[in-house]
């Protein structure tokens, strides 16, 4: 079984400051927005070039280490922009997931695409899911909580965010144009980016939350356009298994050679 209420390889926290965290889910979800800053926003703060390496940190514990090195205040204290850790949407989502799990709240990071940043586009994005007392997974975008986007970031509506697997199914069924799904400011658009996020999402459901640009298995070949029908059929299986959300099947599929994250990347 997959225990989403405790820290995993990349979400375990042992910092003394973590013991000062609030217990309310809403309060925990609001913290990351005051602790992380996107690289584009960080450039406006004229931070030293070395600070941008924080963008490459995978474990939440190292993200917290970097944050405390800049400002040793408790995690409940929102930092001024220049004293936040530099990271992507994945940092917001994974840090939120780690904080929730530290308090015993079932949570998981999801990799996919948000449809609320640019009209008509699905932009590469990570969010956090929180399981409520009734067993429903509520989707929360901790990066934009309290912002002015026209979404309920505390409980995203259907279609606001598509996981990699959900986007893959929509593409295969002709419900979306894959060329409008990708990474803003890059050439990574289309079916290959959707495949990549489907694999990353499967790993995240197995508590291995990788960086948005990490590649393993046949992901690189997919981006190069050299995979074919067999790999697409595997993506069909990934999408169906993630949608079914059966922990045993998620673990079984993730254990296959093409989908398991190499141990050397989980650090």
TrEMBL record:
| Superkingdom of the organism of origin | Bacteria
Q: Which InterPro entries match?
A: Papain-like_cys_pep_sf, Transglutaminase-like
Please give the Pfam families that the UniProt record associates with this protein. Transglut_core
User: Domain Transglutaminase-like spans what residues?
Assistant: 86-141
Cited SUPFAM superfamilies: Cysteine proteinases (SSF54001)
The protein's name is: Transglutaminase-like domain-containing protein
The organism is Cryptosporangium japonicum
User: Lineage in the entry?
Assistant: Bacteria, Bacillati, Actinomycetota, Actinomycetes, Cryptosporangiales
